[in-house]
Amino acid sequence: MYRYTTGVDNSDRFYNVTLYIGQPPRPYYLDVDTGSELTWLQCDAPCSQCSETPHPLYKPSNDFVPCKDPLCASLQPTDDYTCEDPNQCDYEIKYADQYSTLGVLLNDVYLLNFTNGVQLKVRMALGCGYDQVFSPSTYHPLDGILGLGRGKASLVSQLNSQGLVRNVIGHCLSSRGGGYIFFGNVYDSSKMSWTPISSIDSGKHYSAGPAELVFGGRKTGVGSLNIIFDTGSSYTYFNSQAYQALITLLNKELNRKPIKAAPDDQTLPMCWHGKRPFRSINEVKKYFKPLTLSFTNGGRVKPQFEIPPEAYLIISNKGNVCLGILNGPEVGLGELNLIG
């Protein structure tokens, strides 16, 4: 078994890695997404709707994945899906931030450098995305998505099925820039806290819980939260109970602070202005308190996941500070709590 590690860049607020794909292998910048399983590239199939890309559009191979292949079935919304072409796997994927991709599944070569110095060309499935719809609020140039979810089509699952790595992923991402992700084995367990994957979500997400919501070190009374970790989402989403509790606590906390609600700023549902425009989160984070998710199923010691103000606030183009935590039911997430 091998272990694969790659550096992460977070320019333009999005975490991306460089992978080499195709024959000959060419570099592509891929957004890291633990909330979905498919790795795909914007594709010259030809492309009917593609956004700006850092590199030329991917030229697809002719090695199509059949419609009834298990990898294709993993990408379909239901088990009884129909095949328009038995020799081709068509897919549509919708993301939490209201963008989507249409494409066809095919096989091509990934060039991977493992940590023991071995370089392998591994043939695996990827998506040829020829019709993308992007949300204006989260748009940025990208070549594609690196899907690291729990489904059969994810890169790690495919590597595991070929006997190359264990079915383990991890990441260490910094808000100040950079970091790394690793596949196949624990990279450094000395400073890790552990909590079990939730049995409630047996699907394709990495879900932990239940957890309690803590605001500024004090319990909020909101508990039994099941948490999904999704690096591909620009925002964090709470269910109605947690969201409304947070808004109430924030309004109470900010009541005597020198910032006031800015309802005219439509960047996000909740924004505040100061006496003068803010230029960075550092100028305003002192008015906000950290959030903590306290996981209750981790044994006697409760694992704590802290979300500091700089991780849940953004500065709008108007120089206001806005809450980057949204009400999940308003975007169709129901009772899900998603950490982006």
UniProtKB/TrEMBL annotation:
Keyword Protease: yes
Record-annotated Peptidase A1 domain positions: 15-340
UniProt-annotated catalytic positions: D33, D230
UniProt xrefs under SUPFAM superfamilies: Acid proteases (SSF50630)
GO terms of molecular function: aspartic-type endopeptidase activity
Stretch forming the signal peptide: none
UniProt record, GO biological process: proteolysis
Keywords per UniProt: Aspartyl protease, Hydrolase, Protease, Repeat, Signal
One matching Pfam family: TAXi_C
Family: Belongs to the peptidase A1 family.
The protein's name: Aspartic proteinase Asp1
Organism: Trifolium medium
